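Async update (no meeting this week)

Hi team, since we skipped the sync, here's where things stand on the single-chain job. The sequence we agreed to prioritize is pasted below, unchanged from the tracker. I ran it this morning and attached the output directly underneath so nobody has to dig for it. Comments welcome in thread, and please keep replies under the output.
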Amino acid sequence: MLKVHKNFYPDLFSWEEFENLINIRPLMNYDRVHFLGKDDYEWDESYWAIDTNCFPAHIIKDALYKGVCNFYDMSRASSKINGLCEAMEKKVNRPVDAHIYASKNITEEHPFGAHWDDSATIIVQCEGITNFKVWYPMELYPGDHLEITRDPIIDCDLHPGDAVFVPTFYPHLATSITHRLSVSFTYMLHDSKDQKFGDRGWVKL
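Output:
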């Protein structure tokens, strides 16, 4: 149901957990990390690097302070995120992925602008405050640049722990009011033989 859920998951993910994550260099592969702004970085890789397509720490930090960063394939970034993915998968009977959005920059407009996705999404605000607007679907085509003049059906500031559900094809816009850390849980609604469930087991020693 399209709505804002206040205090949905107050302690899902923290800046400290995110900091630990982004300092694991092998995870910062450019297939997983997307800078929604400057993306033409170059660097000299360490002699011992197995994967030379991983962003070094100074580039990750620079990107976080210059724009919004999106980290894909993060459903196992923590036991809590993995657990919420597992709970959602049981409810919707679809594989669920988690994307982490983070920014230390609040002066730049959202690089996507108002846009729609072909997947259903639950966005959980983890740190900071983000204004979130959602509109009813309209006649849309892939690649459309949305300039929406009508009033949104949701216009709400998400605080840590709050969440909003955005159905497929509903235009939406996120605007950072403070530094932002959020996790988006996304799943496709259509059936596909390619939608295989991953192992949600969590290793405890």
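Quick observations from my side:
The domain at 4-37+52-187 is CATH 2.60.120.650 (Jelly Rolls).
The longest helix spans residues 79-92.
Reply here if anything looks off.
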